[in-house]
Amino acid sequence: MAIWNLGSINADMVYAVPHLPQAGETLAAGDMQTFLGGKGANMSVAAARGGAHVCHIGAVGPEGKWAVDRLMEYGVDTRHISMTETPTGHAIIAVEPGGENQIILFPGANQAIPSDQLGQALSAANAGDILILQNETCLQAEAARMGREMGLRVCYAAAPFDADAVKQVLDTLDFLILNEVEAEQLRLATGKTPDALGVHDVVVTIGAKGARHFDGESGEVSEVAALPVTPVDTTGAGDTFTGYVLAGLDRGMPMKQALTLANKAAALMVTRHGTADVIPDLKEVQDARF
After folding, report:
1. Residues 80-99: what's their mean pLDDT?
2. What is the spatial distance between Cα 183 and Cα 189, in angstroms, rounded to a whole number?
3. What is the CATH code of the structural domain delimited by 3-19+32-279?
4. Residue 221: enclosing H or E segment and its boundaries?
5. Taking the CA atoms of the chain, what radius of gyration do you get in angstroms?
6. What residue spans define the domains of the chain?
7. C or N: which end of the chain has fewer Cβ atoms within 10 Å?
8. Omega before 160 cis (within 30°)?
9. Which listed residue (77, 129, 233, 239) is catalytic?
10. Residue 239 known to be catalytic
11. Tens of pLDDT along 205-243?
């Protein structure tokens, strides 16, 4: 089986700051590092490190070959990433000592993925493969419909959150993952709680409390508790969680087992500074003791 990821690719410029800046404030950073990032790239790397075969569908600009090379180095199939004239996406990320962050995102080439590229990529997918989307690229609704028609397991990570974007793909989804704030925003937009969305599996991450799974078929609700760690940087932790959940499911794990594995991966991730480049591999996650 395989995971197909229509996902963003960014250069993440991470600044260590004494506190998150306020409106109008000029703030000196104590350190700056550049990482491979973007929600899509993070999820692809996490899923690949979680043991899945991952095919990334995306785009970079003329200066973005380094990002494609880095993805390939981390085990991601990059044959469906195009080079465009639009600059590679990037994010400016401020991280304070407690690990909380603030992000400015420039979409760039992530919004310039050619539509014919999507069809060419998915023509190689097989029924039962996983298709994952996030709200950082173009072609989400088209991909979701195509995936449903092809018998793929269509998954959506609802971030950066936009209720209209979620509603456009909701009737095509098999799996939806969002955080507690996003779940409430979606409830306000649709009038439906996670268990009433008509999606087979909904996972709501609940921060320091862990994650909650809603089984749309049985109605069962289960939780996975968070692990006790001291965070230094929460950037990319949610993407790591999502990538590992999907890798577990792709490898045939029951949902509870996949969530437990993903929980450990995310817990390790928040103890590290950076994004895709520092996502833990499967052996690290399996060997971790909390």
Report:
1. 94
2. 10
3. 3.40.1190.20
4. strand 221-224
5. 18
6. 3-19+32-279
7. C
8. yes
9. 239
10. yes
11. 998 789 999 999 999 999 999 899 998 888 889 999 999
